[in-house]
Amino acid sequence: MHRQGMKFKAKVCSKIILVDTDVPLPTSQTLIKTMASSSRLPRFCSCSGQDCFRLVGLKGFCVCSLNDIIVGTVRTRVEVQGMAEWKVTITNNCKCAQHKLTLSCEGFQSRETEDPNIFQKQGNNCLVIDGNALNGFASVSFTYAWDPPFIMFPSGSIVDPC
């Protein structure tokens, strides 16, 4: 299949993992062209969501990115050992599932124990739902107790084909 002068193999679409970057469009296009002509399948795509879709113009290409993962934090009005409790809700705001989802959580602490199947600290990142898929438009939540609240944002994921 040819699109904008690039040759792609169909199996490339289902193997690309998107990472959120601010690479300028011409650079992204060059990197995608280089990756697509490579004999081995790429692990990372250097553009995000709609830019990748627009560049290659392939239906079914990975159109989701970390920008589609929304992390919301609200106070629950509960106190645990003198610390405010916070409810964190992680939502996949795209139709494609994303797995091995991690959040940045440097310095994360809590006075209550989080379910390790939902939220597991691994160095400066935290693994969400034990690395299993967060389906499209689905959410998962957990609570922790600390003050002030931690600012967490998506740091990595693998986008499943959709």
TrEMBL record:
Keywords: Signal, Transferase. This is Glycosyl transferase, family 31. One of its GO terms (biological process) is cell fate determination. InterPro entries: TPD1. GO terms for molecular function: transferase activity. Coiled coil: none annotated. The keyword Signal applies.
